[in-house]
Amino acid sequence: MDVCRITRRRKATVIAFALIETAKLNDVDTQAWLTWCLGQIAGYKMTHLDELLPWRYAA
Hints:
Elements: H1 3-25, H2 30-40
């Protein structure tokens, strides 16, 4: 297995865990937020991704 691929996977995992923990700290239902976020992300521009962060989510 390629070392770079492993490093990218680790980085993606760390980012995912950080976002989930951030959602928990903001009293956001993590499953509902992730479902909503994944449904929205395809249509978002890179410059607007901050709108999908947990503290911006309104259930």
